[in-house]
Design a protein that fits this description.
single chain; about 800 residues; four-stranded mixed β-sheet; 4 helices; globular; Beta-barrel_TonB
Length: about 800
């Protein structure tokens, strides 16, 4: 597909959606006030048993469009007020203006939890991109949200298992490496590509799959997002929305069993602690263990996540969230499966059996992760709100591993041994104020804030030594752990502290009801230093001092209420994570510039949301692997690449059918010839085409009430596995999944089958042509959920 065809598709999409929006649906407008006739902003307006809903603006006004004519039950609720319900009939066209008055609750505050329907795939709003609670329709960026209903129906327990549900995203391997818009997002290189509730501080290291026990929904913000979040992957950032304390008592348990000895159990308890419901709690615990279709690989995870919310008053709340995870594994970092190199320079991806691994059964990984997040929110006045967040994260890793050295020869390979202990931390302070005002005919939603992030490690004890050569087909692991007396070829023994100070301001300007302008500007200053702790550190440290401006300019135009057209200009700069001379440094700062245009529409009575986006990202000074026989850790900053493409995604609920689907096209290429490649070379792990679909249908028969069937497909076109070798190309693959579920009262039983055709496929590479990430073969999971109350 040619790139210019996507622009034609954008124009066609806008015309079609505009034409559809003009069909005869109903609209409802109104205003919500309190007993003193003052507007109630932020009130939730919803039709029961539908996905139709919105919130009131600062004037207490709301607007709902695209309503299918018929009878509904309207619910209006807000913190500190008694919920109001009313039966009403919606006719075609504009219905009578609705004026409602909410009565204050007898309690000082009664929290109202507003969330998507339990079974809804569609999420209508997110405040992650702009930190404003605005509909996705009015957000000038491509944002996709995977709801809790999708996580449940997919039986997805880690980010890796849900990555392919996002349009244009995939997991590169069985650990913490992901591809978004042609770029690899990987924890050591992009420390903040994983956010929690919009705040920096990744709970998981790169050797782990992020867990979803305590996650309500997962958001993908495509493109550079540095205007609010500082550094991150140029392809996008992933934001986890965690489960929060509830004002109503609730408890559930989940059990799952599956292939390769998989077992999982979790419990979720929530409710009020105090009788006046000012103090709320939530406690989540989860445990899983599993083996693999690969030899010797075993792992187990434990997560404990308690949280408290104190509703001090109608205007003030305080939330404390704690997370602790423990991971223990044999071969924690899966180095991948063997790839056979033919004499003519081509590759055979089916030559070696799936179960073989270069690692030894003595390899292990033990990780302790902990985080604490304290959030303070105070509504200073009707137009001014203050938010302060403190987040602390600590990761402790004890890890040994075997890696390949050189090429496979005569079905044998030399190996190196890594022994690593590290203690890492992140201390983040974020404070910002949101102010709503008007200047003449213009409306303003202004955010001004600052960040202070102190992060790094207090210990980084790493040693690399030569290990034994093994036969691939008949490995002998005797003597694979080098003696302590053997000197290390490479050694780290250091600490590193980096201080990031940032400040930003953003103004979303409303020009009438149809046009919105978003202007953002951020300034970041980095100051870091790596300090050797002994003479054994053969890199002897490096320093980081850099600063820069990050602008964002965006426009959103709504020709009709349920259709928007947007354009965005984004820039970012990211400091390199390493400037060590041994790795090839010092390196220049990474720079990204993105241009994006798109269109969004809420269709069929707002039950279906569609997004079409076209983008180009120019990225300079990418730090990429450039290993040599002498130094497998060598890196290089490439002069520049260009990633361009388009995405189309759709999500929603059509009566008994729920679906999430999309298509992504991407070309990520070098824009100049260097010693590491020539102009036009494809970037590693960046397929040109990706298709995703997942749909669930609930049967209408009364006799089969509660029975649902689901199916999905993931297609990934061929992809280059290594930038420096354009002949190392992974074949395309198509993976089919399916599920069947039955819900009855408080129970749900579910069976998921993955990779129905037992497709043998590779997902991505690390830094060479010897090993590559191997996709899971056919496997099954059975899950049982029970709602205690």
């Amino acid at each position: 597909m040619k790139f210019q065809y996507l622009f034609l598709l954008l124009a066609m999409f806008s015309n079609v959606t505009c034409s559809y929006a003009q069909s005869e649906q109903g609209t409802l407008h109104g205003r919500i006030v309190n007993a003193e006739d003052k507007p109630v902003s932020g009130a939730s307006i919803a039709f029961q048993n539908t996905t139709l809903g919105t919130i009131t603006d600062e004037k207490g006004q709301f607007s709902l469009t695209g309503i299918t004519p018929g009878s509904y039950i309207l619910t209006v609720s807000n913190v500190g007020y008694i919920a109001y319900t009313q039966s009403m009939r919606i006719s075609k066209g504009r219905n009578a203006f609705l004026n409602l008055q909410l009565s204050e609750s007898n309690q000082e505050l009664k929290e109202v939890i507003v969330s998507a329907a339990k079974n809804s795939y569609q999420v209508s709003s997110s405040n992650s991109s702009t930190r404003l609670d605005v509909p996705l329709l009015e957000t000038p960026q491509s944002v996709q949200v995977v709801s809790s209903a999708v996580l449940r129906d997919r039986q997805a327990f880690t980010l890796n298992e849900i990555a392919g549900t996002f349009t244009g995203m995939k997991a590169n391997n069985g650990n913490g490496s992901f591809q978004i818009r042609g770029f690899t997002a990987y924890s050591p290189n992009d420390a903040s590509f994983l956010l929690f509730n919009g705040i920096r501080g990744n709970l998981y290291l790169w050797s782990q799959q992020p867990l979803l026990y305590n996650i309500e929904s997962v958001e993908l913000l495509r493109g550079p997002s540095g205007a609010l979040f500082s550094e991150g992957s140029p392809g996008g950032v992933v934001n986890f929305i965690t489960k929060k304390p509830l004002s109503e008592k609730r408890a559930s348990v989940d059990l799952s069993l599956g292939s390769w000895g998989f077992g999982r159990a979790s419990a979720d308890f929530a409710g009020p602690v105090s009788s006046n419901k000012k103090l709320l709690y939530r406690a989540i615990i989860g445990y899983d263990r599993s083996e693999s279709f690969r030899d010797y690989q075993k792992k187990q995870n434990l997560l404990i996540a308690p949280s408290l919310t104190y509703l001090a008053s109608e205007r003030t709340s305080l939330n404390l969230e704690l997370n602790y995870t423990y991971s223990k594994a044999v071969q924690q970092y899966d180095n991948g499966s063997y790839v056979y190199s033919r004499p003519d320079g081509t590759f055979d991806f089916n030559h070696y059996p799936n179960n073989l691994t270069i690692q030894s059964p003595t390899d292990y990984g033990k990780t302790h992760n902990a985080s604490a997040t304290l959030s303070f929110n105070h509504q200073i006045s009707q137009n001014l709100k203050l938010t302060v967040v403190e987040r602390a994260v600590r990761n402790v890793l004890d890890y040994t591993d075997h890696i390949p050295v050189g090429r496979i020869r005569n079905d044998s390979i030399s190996r190196g041994f890594q022994d690593w202990e590290t203690d890492r931390f992140s201390l983040q302070t974020t404070a910002f104020a949101t102010y709503t005002t008007n200047t003449g005919p213009l409306g303003h939603q202004i955010i001004a804030g600052s960040d202070y992030n102190r992060y790094g490690w207090t210990q980084n004890d790493y040693q690399y030594k030569p290990s034994t050569r093994i036969s691939i087909l008949h490995p002998d692991y005797a003597g694979s752990i080098p003696d302590a007396s053997v000197p290390a070829d490479e050694s780290d023994d250091n600490k590193r502290i980096t201080n990031l100070i940032g400040a930003y301001i953003q103004d979303q300007i409303s020009v009438g009801d149809k046009l919105k302008v978003l202007l953002s500007l951020r300034y970041d200053n980095y100051n870091g230093k790596e300090t050797p702790l002994s003479d054994r550190d053969n890199k002897q440290g490096d320093e980081l001092k850099t600063s820069g401006w990050i602008p964002r300019v965006a426009l959103v135009y709504l020709p009709v209420k349920n259709v928007s057209i947007y354009g965005t200009y984004l820039k970012s700069f990211n400091p390199q994570t390493s400037n060590n001379v041994l790795s090839g440094g010092p390196f220049p700062t990474r720079q990204a510039t993105q241009y994006e245009v798109g269109s969004k529409a809420d269709l069929i009575g707002n039950r279906l949301s569609a997004t079409l986006s076209l983008y180009q990202i120019n990225y300079a000074n990418i730090l990429t692997a450039a290993p040599t026989e002498e130094n497998s850790h060598r890196q290089a900053a490439i002069d520049g690449t260009r990633s361009r493409g388009g995405e189309f995604s759709v999500v929603g609920n059509l009566n008994r059918l729920s679906l999430i689907a999309g298509y992504a096209f991407n070309e990520h290429e070098l824009v100049s010839t260097t010693s590491y490649g020539k102009k036009g070379d494809r970037f590693a792990n960046a397929p040109k085409h990706q298709i995703n679909f997942w749909g669930k249908y609930v049967l209408p028969s009364q006799a089969l009430k509660g029975l649902g069937i689901a199916a999905g497909v993931r297609y990934v076109s061929d992809q280059v596995g290594l930038l420096s070798n354009q002949n190392f190309v992974f074949p395309s693959y198509t993976v089919l999944d399916a599920a069947i579920s039955y819900s009855r009262n408080r129970y749900q039983v579910q069976v998921n089958a993955y990779n129905l055709t037992n497709k043998h496929y590779f997902t991505g590479s690390r830094s060479g042509v010897t090993l590559a990430g191997l996709g899971d073969p056919f496997n099954v999971r059975v899950g049982i959920s029970y709602q205690l109350w």
